[in-house]
Design brief:
Number of helices of chain B: 23
CATH architecture of chain A: Beta Barrel
Strand content of chain B: 15-25%
Protein name (chain A): Protein Abitram
InterPro entries (chain A): Abitram, GCV_H/Fam206, Single_hybrid_motif
Oligomer: heterodimer
GO molecular function (chain A): actin filament binding; actin monomer binding
Largest sheet of chain B: 10 strands, mixed
Shape of chain B: elongated
Number of strands of chain B: 18
Strand content of chain A: 25-35%
Number of helices of chain A: 5
Strand order of the largest sheet of chain A: 7-10-11-3-2-1-12
GO cellular component, one term (chain A): nucleus
CATH class of chain A: Mainly Beta
Family (chain A): Belongs to the ABITRAM family.
Chain lengths: ~180, ~575
Amino acid sequence: MEYNILDSIDLNDKSIYKSFTDRYFSKRYILNVDGIENNDIMLMFHSNRITLLCLAPSHFFFKNPDKYNLNFTIGKVDRLSNLVKGKGKKGGQMLTPKSTICKVEWNDGTSFDIPCGMKGTLIEINENLVNNPEILREQPDSDGFIAIMLSSIANSEATKNELLNHEEYLKRVNCSI
Amino acid sequence: MDQKAIYKFCKSLGCCEACCLRYIGIKHPNAYENSKNYVTKFREENDLEPISTDKNMTIDVSAHTSEKNGASISSNVRNSDEICDKSIDTKESITNKGSTEVDTAVLDSNDSVSPPHKKRKLNVCVSCLGVLQEDNWQECYQMVKEILDKKGYECNTFACALSAPIATLLREKAVTLHLVDEFPQYDAKVLTPLKEAWKWSFGVKLGAYINKILDSGAISPLLITVNIDYVDELQELEILKTVSPQLFAERSKQKRRFVTEFTRRSVEQALELATLWSLSAADALRAPHSRAACVGAACAHAPIFLAGRYIKLSRNLPQSPWILEGRRVLPSSVQEIIFGPLTKCYKFDPEDADRRFKFIAAGREDVDVRCLGDGRPFAIEISDPTRQLTAEEMKEVCEEISNGGEVIVKEMSPISKEDLVQLKKGEETKSKTYEALCIKLSHSKFDEDHNAPIRVTQEDIDRINSYTNTTSKEVKIALQQKTPIRVLHRRPLLTRSRDILELTATLIPEHPQLFALRLRTSAGTYVKEWAHGELGRSAPALAAALRARADLLALDVRAVHLAWPPARRAPPAPRAPPPTTS
């Protein structure tokens, strides 16, 4: 008996065409972080409490077409030297909502910080940003993610519930425009 | 070595016949099966001990043959004991410690069969505490038989194991020291272990009672364990604190580490230092007040293993039950579908089945991945089974599994535990062939009209088919894959090197934006992550070969390249069941 792969799924079902991030993650938003207008970040929560840090589409970063560098050295801490060991991810840098993950340094000498927005452990910095910083601008909600974080189930759930979901975010952003 | 002298000496200490044989160093199993007959050869020919006369032999025989007639046995045994005791009392200068005067009142409460006597002698061996003495065995037989009747094993052989009172170690040491003292050239190493002597005597007779053949534990899968306890054990072992005070002082300091004061190990350690003087001073060979009694028996059948391959036709079926926070996410699983008919076959209740069956597979596919072709190799471990399934039953089990329509198992066969190694090794070393249905998501720079609908071109296909990033002949694409995010919460973050060994893309004419891939990968390759690139965490991705963004819509395992089940060897010929006891 032949089991044709084409017959095994419903090609008219739109959900099979969802992007990788839409398939597995719920998006949440934090607006005007630190009181800075449009300093907007997006957290993508996987059902297994892994969280991705991204810039929200409404971030002022996207309005500036200038060249930029990304700096992962925050004070004395080098985010790129973060190392986690074993299943328990021991040794990852501890993060609070205000912790800066990365600095965006514009060519004109000005800069801004990207905060992580939640309490947790830093698992991984997107290393592709180091050699290829443009992907932050080009694919901010996929390959241009900034970091992977992990927090306790309780904290992950609580943070997820108190933040703006996608619909609420769209409403807020459209109002403010 | 004068065996007769050893026999006589041991007897004088209060040993039973079987223990005398043990100290002499007799290793023939037959000797223990009927020790009372066998010991006659160690008695002096001119010895006038009544026990060696023909008259006593007949008593012994009658004790064996009329086991069910409790009253007659007990009176027979008592007669011979009394005679034996008297003879020792008169003949030996060493006081006989093997017999104790017991008030009838005490005895009557234990043994209502015995007729009232003013005084009677209870003859318990000072060494084995009765473990090797037949009058103790009937209750053991019954205890074992009760369990066997309940469990209903079909196996017609058995092995037996003894958990003997630790006090026997102490007493063995004391007897040995006495022997070395009496016969300076006596070698303590000749001692036949209590367990062996017990197997050769008790074990053989148990076999007749339960209608199974005694065999070694290495051969028979059915193990019967008998627990024998001695009431005065703790009290007697206290002696060791005077023999080896330091050891027990240290152990009591580390209460957490040594929860129990007297373990087989601690007693053995303490006895290493014991001297005849110290043990005699503590009266280590004091006459036992009671015999060690059978307090429990356990029967367990070694696990059996069944091997097969499963084909999974559903994209909504996990391999093992998917339970999240105590609630089922999906109603069934491959494992449960396979266990169902087996549970019926063995007549296990569902909870029992959960404990008794263990599902072992050569890897697993995701819930939404089908497993086609010959299927994925698996094995089932059945612990404490009552029997092996017949070929016919296994065929029926397979049919019932397959009738459900989600999982197909064509055949199952029994395998050995050693065969499992191949299954697990296969998971780590064997390659797998997949079929993937993919979609092109963006125009490639080679597409002429970027406003036209996205279509997969023959050039795209050619580009995928000719893509390589290695010079190796065996490896087409060498991948670096970080631990996928979907499992990152429970696995360490690592970058793994994996290989795509073969890759062929084909167009799907009726769906111009889709294409099919057939690929063979090394074990442990994350195919889905390769297809979508997982945010750049798996590289190079399919997109690198296609030169456009791509994703995977459906995935099938087409082959798990592992020879399984292992080639069948001729099974050992089944043993004939023993004749039934009359």
